[in-house]
Design goal:
Layout: H1 8-21, E1 27-30, H2 36-43, E2 47-50, H3 61-65, E3 70-74, H4 83-88, E4 94-100, H5 125-134, E5 137-146, H6 154-161, E6 163-172
Parallel strand pairs: 1-2, 1-3, 3-4
Antiparallel strand pairs: 4-6, 5-6
Length: 173
């Protein structure tokens, strides 16, 4: 269905991970506005509602008022200043998160044209694990994978061998 190229590789791995752990009868609150992957989840039979674009650092009311059994946060937590507070306000017992991992050979991402498209956090895997533990979640399964690129150079070569993404399924303890 999807090629092995980015971003389709990421979408393929994430969808396979969801299908492994999540029933299609679950209701999903996907953090962030509607996006290409939330559309893929819907196309594959999942019931998905996205948050409305509110600043989740300051406003977690959607997490409290919506009805859902699962929260997904794909490529969201790196943009938040305070993911701890967001996780404290999650009502569901099931959580799927993916984050870009911090790379030793590249600085954190910051768009030059969009003041909101920045990575405040680029986690190491143990940092996300600790954040989940501190907010009452236990990791059930996880996977790491690379971010290939078609560019030429030293860093693009390193991206073929260095894990860039960390995908986690966690449940409330």
């Amino acid at each position: 269905m999807y090629e092995k190229t980015f971003p389709n590789k990421r979408f393929k791995i994430t969808l396979e991970f969801l299908e492994k752990h999540l029933s299609k009868s679950e209701t999903i609150l996907d953090l962030g506005v509607e996006n290409p992957f939330s559309k893929i989840m819907i196309k594959n039979g999942y019931s998905v509602k996205n948050t409305g674009g509110e600043d989740l650092d300051n406003d977690q009311s959607t997490l409290q008022k919506e009805h859902y059994t699962v929260v997904t946060a794909f490529e969201i937590f790196e943009h938040l200043l305070n993911p701890y507070t967001v996780l404290q306000n999650v009502k569901s017992d099931k959580l799927f998160i993916s984050i870009p991992l911090r790379l030793w050979f590249s600085s954190a991402y910051r768009s030059k044209t969009d003041k909101w498209d920045r990575h405040y956090h680029e986690f190491e895997d143990w940092q996300l694990d600790w954040l989940l533990e501190k907010t009452g979640f236990k990791i059930v399964d996880s996977v790491k994978f690379t971010h290939p690129t078609n560019k030429i150079g030293f860093r693009p070569i390193l991206r073929y061998f260095t894990d860039r993404y960390y995908l986690v399924y966690a449940v409330r303890q």
